Amino acid sequence: MNKLRVLFMGTPDFALPSCEALYQRFDLVGVVTQPDRPKGRGGKLSAPPVKEFALAHGLPCWQPTILKDGSFQAVLDETKPDLIVVAAYGRILPEYILNYPKYGCINVHGSLLPKYRGAAPIQRAIIDGEKETGVTIMKMAKGMDTGDMILKVSTPINETDTAGTLFDRLAVLGAEALLEAIDQITNGTAVYIPQNDEMATYAPMIEKAEGAIDFNRPASDLFHLVMGMNPSPGAFIDFGDYRLKIHEASVSDRCNNRPGTVCRVSKDGIDVACGDGNSLRLKTVHKQGKNRTDAYSYACGAKLVVGEELR
What we know:
Helix content: 25-40%
Mean pLDDT: 96
CATH class of the largest domain: Alpha Beta
Distance between the termini: 67 Å
Number of strands: 15
CATH topology of the largest domain: Rossmann fold
């Protein structure tokens, strides 16, 4: 029996477990990923993780800059995939691609659809204070994450979860769910469940400016912001003439001081008053131009004192 011919489309680390699972189980005829991008201070071109996987395993790799002009048809005709799998590729597929494979195109999406359609479902779920999220395997349609659902797997969002830890967990869950969904598709047992558009929420791409900490907000909101922006692009305070990134934080004791005022400095961190009468404890910080450090060491170096305002 011939192995299923699968073409994979993905870009970041989140996509790697799915790509690896397909490589181990099926005839992975190639991968499609985003073009190399400048990275770091030097702006040197860097290959996406999925491209690095392809090169390491001798797989054909394509990095088209445009899909809607029909030029990708040549790749489809060359690879003849029975199924196309997409995981965090970063582009909407035109209809001629969606309609090509025998089994269509399916997507590994990092949320429990129809909640959090869009580019940043994992970060948004943490920032919004959700208690649960998961992965949905869906059949792709013309809209943004609007296709029929095939399989959903859930996982709790723990208090210690950052976007980074949740990315890693969902990437593995997604790969496991993907293989199960493909089995259902190919043996004819898959059930395609339409999404309820009235229940849909959206998760647009994260902008750096969203990481600005406003201490007039409740401490719990700011805690979720810090965790959801970790590791990138990071929550921050513009303090004096430099930016202070906050990598770790927690909700701390009551503090009736004006929001933004330092309530306590200890080896546990820096407690700052918030708009709801609680305080946010800054635990790990990164001063612009310096190394990442614990908040207490930063406070000592900056001579930060109780009563000072972080504004």
